[in-house]
Specification:
The protein is α/β, with parallel strands linked by helices. Helix content is 45%, strand content 19%. It folds into three domains: 215 residues, Rossmann fold; 91 residues, Rossmann fold, CATH 3.40.50; 78 residues, ACT domain (Alpha-Beta Plaits). Helix 12 packs across helix 13.
Length: 400
């Protein structure tokens, strides 16, 4: 099992090769949740993820013969980019096996670092099996994304930096996939400050470490917005450390993660992917548990597909009452639509879309159903727009 000394040695190896990222308080998020919240901006790494720490720590320790033959890795993206980037820097051949569901932004980012990309399998476990077969066939060194002591030690430098920057932290919230990040952070944090609480966060759709540690059997889904922690089986090396050092594991759902992504984008002006936002999602879901505490969150990565981000932003606006869909029933006569739009405008709503429905409706034939998508200010503003329509004589209701 790795110790603080090994993580300190990893930190020395990484000097000048990865960023010492900021760990600073978000005063706005602190006010919202009632705790003092410090964010560790690992999304500012060159590959936009903490994963390059473990990858680099592993690669710089390879023997001359291993360097000559090259390396292979399997990953949904961030580990892939970390291995590819540092292999390119060090002049090594890199083959990366990625599951077919990997977002294109991560595939192209990895290819951009000169790696040979192999898309194989529909899960990380299938990709790993194929990568291990290629490693044996081509005599490549397999760089595991989490089940490797050198990788865990590299990830542990995140915890080292957090406590050096903010020694008064008393709680750390860390996303858990295979467990490499939380195992490294817990090793460093508990050695430096034994009383600190280290809590893992997983999604309800991929509760692998939660099941392993709590001896439960929650079902596993097929996809999640936090694909970076969509791991079927936790690593053996990390699991042993998690069982010994991690205080608890919390579960969040997809909506919690989406809310966290939007909040970080809007408040902190920082782009974080689903896995990287899991810690904040847990904090938003259970604020009472952390009230009054000094909480450190790791923003693990910022590689997110632009189309997915656009959908998340729109859905976030709906939840916040800033985008609404309402249905208005009116007589199908000239001037009705003009009166409706004028009423909405006077109430301060901005119309995005208008849809007329004459055929697919149970209304009388002389009536029309009009669906409006509006930009609004809040849920209270939506209610005010509906009240204005009712006062103007229209039947109107919000569509969920």
């Amino acid at each position: 099992m790795i110790d603080l000394a090994e993580i300190r040695r990893a930190a020395q190896r990484l000097l000048g090769q990865v960023l010492v990222t900021p760990c600073v308080e978000s005063r706005t998020i602190s006010r919202i949740v009632g705790a003092q919240v410090f964010l560790k901006f690992e999304n500012l790494q060159f590959t936009a993820s903490f994963k390059e720490r473990g990858a680099c720590n592993k690669l710089v320790q390879l023997s001359a013969a291993e360097r000559e033959r090259g390396v292979i890795a399997m990953s949904a993206g961030n580990h892939a980019q970390g291995v590819a980037y540092h292999a390119q820097r060090l002049g090594l051949r890199a083959v990366i096996v990625m599951p077919r569901f990997t977002p294109s932004v991560k595939v192209e980012g990895t290819r951009g670092f000169g790696a040979e990309i192999v898309l194989h399998g529909d899960t990380l476990d299938e990709a790993r099996s194929h990568a291990l077969a290629l490693a044996k066939e081509q005599q490549l060194t397999f760089v595991h994304p989490y089940d490797d002591e050198a990788v865990v030690a590299g990830q542990g430098t995140v915890g080292l930096e957090m406590l050096e920057a903010v020694p008064e932290l008393d709680t750390l919230l860390v996303a858990v996939g295979g467990g490499g990040l939380i195992a490294g952070i817990a090793t460093a944090a508990k050695a430096l400050k034994p009383g600190i609480e280290v809590i893992g966060v997983q999604t309800l759709r991929f509760p692998n470490m939660f099941n392993a540690i709590k001896h439960t059997d929650l079902p596993q889904g097929s996809s999640t917005i936090a694909e970076g922690i969509a791991v079927g089986t936790p690593g053996k090396v990390p699991q042993a450390i998690v069982e010994k050092l991690v205080d608890d594991i919390l579960l969040v759902d997809e909506g919690d993660v989406e809310q966290a992504i939007v909040m970080l984008l809007e408040i902190e002006k920082t782009l974080v992917e689903g896995a990287g936002a899991a810690g904040l999602a847990a904090l938003l879901k259970e604020p009472e548990r952390f009230r009054g505490r000094k909480v450190g969150l790791v923003l693990g990565g910022g590689n997110i597909d632009p189309l997915l981000l656009a959908a998340i932003i729109e859905r976030g606006m709906v939840r916040a009452g800033r985008l609404a869909r309402i249905r208005v029933c009116a007589r199908d006569v000239p001037g009705s639509l003009a009166r409706i739009t004028a009423t909405v405008a006077e109430a301060g709503g901005n119309i995005d879309e208008v849809h007329h429905q004459r055929a697919f409706t149970t209304l009388a034939a002389q009536n029309v159903e009009i669906e409006l998508v509006l930009q609004t200010r809040s849920r209270e503003h939506i209610a005010a727009v509906l009240d204005a329509l009712h006062e103007a004589g229209f039947t109107a209701e919000e569509q969920k």
